[in-house]
Amino acid sequence: MKKRNALITGASRGIGLAIANCLKKQGINILIPDRKELDLLSEDSINGYFSSLKIPIDILVNNAGISIVGSIKDLTEQDINKTMQVNLLAPLRIISKIAPGMISREYGRIINIGSIWSIITKPGRITYTLSKSGLVGLTRSIAVELAAYNILVNCVAPGYINTEMTKANNNKKEIAKIKNSIPMQRLGESYEVAELVSFLCSDKNTYITGQTIAIDGGYLCV
Fold first, then answer.
1. Is 219 a catalytic residue?
2. Are 218 and 78 contacting, i.e. CB atoms less than 8 angstroms apart?
3. What is residue 109's three-state secondary structure?
4. How many independent structural domains does the chain possess?
């Protein structure tokens, strides 16, 4: 693989960290901005970060995301705005910043980390499902627009993965029940998601674009 530069958001832990480690093993130069450098809640921060960025971005992984669990009667404007900003609007703005450079070089790989909750849902996931469903639509639209420039855009939709977010949203009893509902009888691991992302980011992927690929141990099949 030619030496590439990859920007990964939300890579301090969990799936994002696993993706960073996996790409690093492929010899890719990794950029992992922290919240002080790139605050996804701030349009000024996004603009400032990319205006000062001096190296070309060949690979973008929009991994950062938040999940605020709550029913329709409990939702606040802050919950809605924060979730939509981090999970959907920030990825759109970041793509708009790096796309021109990818177009000029006629090369790019963009991966949006979605969720199975963009395909199905359950009570308490209103804003999360809304934002991740929008991310799927964004993936398709950008993929069509950029395909002629050898820029491939895909969405990876993890199911129940063994991360802090999963543990924060589900207690031990609930996780045991979840495992029993998954055909593979276990949670996924972050490195498994990272391996899929690594392939989609690589030069081995030459024709997959505009797709949302679930990685869920068969959960969506039952």
1. no
2. no
3. strand
4. 1
Rounded alpha-carbon distances, angstroms, from residue 180 to 116, 167, 186: 17, 16, 7
Q: How confident is the model at residue 1 (pLDDT cuts 50, 70, 90)?
A: low
> pLDDT tens, 120-150?
999 999 999 999 999 999 999 999 999 999 9
Q: What is the CATH number of the domain that holds 86?
A: 3.40.50.720
Q: Could you give the CA distance from residue 114 to residue 64 in angstroms, rounded to a whole number?
A: 10
Tokens in use for 184?
């593979």
> Could you tell me the residue range of the domain that residue 109 belongs to?
5-221
Catalytic residue among 128, 160, 191, 219: 128
Backbone angles phi, psi at 183, to 5 degrees: -50, -35
pLDDT of residue 165: 85
**CB half-sphere exposure, 47, CA atoms < 13 A:** 3
Answer whether residue 60 shows pLDDT above 70: yes
Instruction: Determine if the pTM surpasses 0.90.
Output: yes
Q: Are 75 and 102 in contact (CB under 8 A)?
A: no
Q: Give tens-digit pLDDT for 182-203.
A: 999 999 999 999 999 999 999 9
Q: Give the contacts of 200 (CB within 8 A, at least 6 positions apart).
A: 109, 111, 152, 154, 156, 208, 213
Structure tokens at 163: 């991360």
